[in-house]
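Shipment paperwork, digital attachment
Item: protein structure file
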Amino acid sequence: MKLQKFYAFLFPVALIACGGADKPAEPKWVDLFNGKDINDWVVKIQHHEVGENFGNTFRVEDSIIKVRYDQYGDFNEQFGHLYYKQPFSHFHLKFEYRFVGKWSPTAPGYTFLNSGVMFHSQDPHTMPKEQDWPISVEMQLLGGLGDGKPRPTGNMCSPGTNVVYKGVLDPQHCIESSSQTYDGDQWVKGELIVLGDSLVTHIINGDTVLQYSKPQIGGGVVNRYDPAIKIDGKLLSSGFIALQSEGQEVDFRNIKILNLDAH
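Attachment content:
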């Protein structure tokens, strides 16, 4: 579906009484990242308490959020996430990412040229120190391996969650998108349109590459969580947005959101 038609469906045309003219309601995009610091964000890294930015993992340079491991040594499964300070329910998120620099050789092999954006995540303050992944849904970001083989990006992965895909509750941890493969350190544009616990749409460089619905708590992969938080079968209608750190250096920029609850 073209985005113009999507918004026409969501937002009726507003009647401007003073002039008697019909004009579309103006979407109000808000920058989640101010280009200067991550004061509006919260860090949670496995083996560390919430708020501890171990090794300066998440840092800001040149109006970019950079994920780096130059102060780590052994990666030691220190999977991390950088959470925006407030939750969202219905929203359109835009961001850009690129894979750069090095991969930590002591990180698991699957993390090579791999990162993600989590949404409908549990509050990081509810995560025990040793929990690895947040209970959330992930828009997985992958880089091409330069071998000519397809490696789509904008996939769905589900730590501690499940989704309905093609009409059925899908047990797969990750569902591949239909995106192209992007090699090298080029910037790639990602978008998420999330309608609470209903429809979720993944967009890469302007193309819709995946849709599914009814995100809900369930499944495995997440470990050492508080059992009171993991209520299997509970639909996820809102939650936190987070940028992932799992062993591959990656950059994020131009992170902005349109809060669809406001329309």
